[in-house]
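Hi all, long-time lurker, first post. I run a small reading group and we've been trying to get comfortable going from sequence to structure in the token notation. Rather than ask abstract questions, I figured I'd post a concrete chain and ask someone more experienced to write out its structure so we can walk through it together at our next meeting. Sequence below, copied exactly:
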Amino acid sequence: MSSSFALRHVRRLSISAVTNAAVESPPISMTRAQFTSKLRSEHDPNKVLEMYEAVSKLDISPLFARHAQDLTVKRLAKAKRFDDIEKLIESKKSDPKVNQEAFVSTLIRSYGLAGMFDHSMRMYEQLGDLGAPRSVVSFNALLSACNHSKLFDKVCLLFDEMPQRHGFLPDKVSYGLLVKAYCDDGKAELGVEKLKEMEEKGIEVTVITFTTILHALYKKGSVDEAERLWSEMTGKGFVPDAGAYNVRVMNAQNGKVEDLVKMIEEMKEAGVKPDSISYNYLINCYCKNGMIDEAKKVYEGLEGNGCKPNGATFGTMIHYLAKNEMFDYGYKVFKDSMRANKMPDFCILKPLVVGLVKSTSKKRAKEIIRSAKRNYPPSFMETLKKVEEELGLVSDNSVDVGEAPSETC
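-- Answer (accepted) --
Happy to help. Here is the structure in token form:
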């Protein structure tokens, strides 16, 4: 066993031990993805904090540390625990790495994720006091925080002011964040102008920047302009990735099936591998056009195409399967979603539960309700209880608890 592999293995086991101790869960070997899933499924802000504090004490990679911090801040912001967010981020000032610009930049950005831009700005202004340099790196973190806080006009002001005040030049990331501010503010045409300015100044146009503008144009209904930009950029040798293609695929999903299929084939011919998002749009298009069998074929072929179904895949399939009274297959997809730890919203599952009851599959309907009780927040229990009563799924504990979960589809 190599030393690097051994270290990763120890890290996973350590994360598992500490996070499970914090939330009293059964022991599992915890990867970053599993930690993310566990944190997202935890609805108690206090336990979210416990999990983060436990993990932050471990020897984890800087990337994992940033991911855990950002995800924790998002969960706390959702619960409006802004005081806890401030305590968490301010406590990082005692970290030995606080004199590193990249480290402080993560704090600036995290405040932005919570919509606390005034705190982001204050942290940015404190860089000198913390002994950290101030360059385009922290500037980009500040612009990102501003975008996350939806202060789009402020992004433009900062872009003009800060580089001149502190003596650095905006880079391709800075321009990308400015373009995003324009696009998110419904001003895609300004984003296109900035794209031309980047080309004139010899600043690289990243795939992310290009995709941002493309998405904004489609969203605004400027389809012809979006297609014109696509032709112009690809004609200059620009190579789009799956994300850029998916923006076009997303726009095509409401049109003719054959057009969308053709677009996905175009991706393959260009050497760009369609991903789960690409196939989700295809599944959605098939379903909207009443071609459920074709959607099932795409769903069943995902793994063969090197893709995994995600939450949107399961939600779309279950919705349309229930709508077309294909309850048995809908139950199969539900089971797949549980194995993937991607529990759909109950507004999607309820029609399936109702359909299973009507088709004399109460056992399977009960299993979905039990799964919902295990995975949904406590505040949702009353809703589930009402559904049980309405559908006649309430039974005494001796029968309900003893009933083995169905594994067949």
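A couple of things your group might point at:
Residues 1-29, 396-409 have pLDDT under 50 and may be disordered.
Residues 3-23 form the longest helix (21 residues).
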